[in-house]
Design brief:
This protein is mainly alpha-helical. 49% of the residues lie in helices and 5% in strands. A two-stranded antiparallel ribbon has the order 1-2. Helix 2 packs antiparallel against helix 3, helix 2 crosses helix 5 and helix 4 runs antiparallel to helix 5. It is elongated and about 70 Å long. The protein starts with a helix and ends in a 20-residue tail after the last helix.
Length: 308
């Protein structure tokens, strides 16, 4: 039974490893969707309509301002996820061991084993056999990146990076602004999309009409898919868990890191409200909240023995 599970995992990770070769292709694909949308909304339809006067000019101006504002936030968030290291284990990391209990953040499984410490020879701490190093709480090994990632959520091919402790907020903001932007583009292009199925003559060159049609379909598809993904991650944030942890603790009714919705939210977005909707943290939060660095997390004392 164990052997078949190991073979299945090896096959999965073999295909995951191939994802490393995608590299800049996925980034170019994202920028390509942005480019098609920009051409359809700004250059083909609402940009020229600014000079038409009256209500059309006002609507066009409003659409263009909102479009560009959301686009800036989307790209800022996106490249923050792409370029920010999700967090790795420091070279000489040693866990904080509870001397009264003689253990620290236990987790059973094939990748974990007892490890003796100089001070407490009987302590059991998390250990990654692939990296041959101690693992901090909530840390998991990514077979695509080939290393342990702090508070790893998943490896995302769209951002060509792991999503972990230090870029999870940026990833959520990327989803949020992508949903707003794609919804705006879909609604803005809807009248022109419906015109394709009318009997009247449609103004514009064939290339412009094709781009408009493609932009509508792509943005509608992204809006629908991202909305479901964002709802799932909002649920995870409210419970202070990750995608991996949600799977691991599915049989556990209580979660040691669930501190209540407000504190759970702050563990990801920080406590300073003006930073909540931008891909950055205040110096105060970085100084006072170790969870944002990915090595230490507050938990419920009565559940500290929970093996996750």
């Amino acid at each position: 039974m164990y052997r078949s599970g190991a073979v299945m995992a090896w096959n999965v990770f073999r295909f995951c490893t191939a994802l490393r070769g995608l590299g800049s292709i996925m980034i170019l694909l994202v920028l390509g969707v942005v480019g098609v949308s920009y051409y359809a909304v700004v250059l083909s339809i609402y940009g020229p309509a600014l000079t038409s006067g009256g209500l059309d000019s006002f609507i066009s101006l409003a659409v263009l301002i909102l479009f560009h504002s959301l686009l800036v936030m989307l790209l800022w968030s996106y490249f923050s996820v792409v370029l920010t290291d999700p967090g790795g284990v420091p070279p000489n990391y040693r866990p904080v061991v509870d001397e009264e209990r003689g253990d620290a953040d236990r987790l059973g499984g094939s990748e974990f084993s007892p490890l003796a410490t100089p001070d407490l020879p009987h302590a059991r701490i998390r250990y990654c056999r692939k990296c041959n190093q101690v693992k901090p709480p909530r840390c998991h090994h990514c077979s695509v990146c080939g290393r342990c990632v702090l508070k790893m959520d998943h490896h995302c091919v769209w951002v060509v990076n792991c999503v972990g402790a230090q870029n999870y907020k940026y990833f959520l903001l990327f989803l949020f602004y992508t949903l707003l932007e794609t919804t705006l583009v879909t609604l803005s292009l809807l009248p022109y999309f419906l015109a394709f199925f009318s009997d009247g003559e449609i103004a514009g060159s064939p290339s412009t009409l094709a781009t408009t049609f493609l932009a509508f379909v792509l943005n509608l598809a992204f809006a629908l898919s991202v909305s479901g993904f964002l709802i799932m991650h909002i649920s995870l944030v409210s419970g202070n868990t990750t995608t991996i942890e949600a799977y691991e603790k599915k049989t556990s009714p209580k979660w040691r890191y669930d501190l209540g919705r407000k504190r759970n939210f702050e563990q990801v977005f920080g406590t300073v409200e003006r930073y909540w909707f931008i891909p950055a943290y205040s110096e105060e939060d970085l100084r006072k909240m170790p969870a944002l660095q990915g090595l230490e997390y507050p938990s419920k004392p009565d559940l500290d023995s929970q093996e996750f």
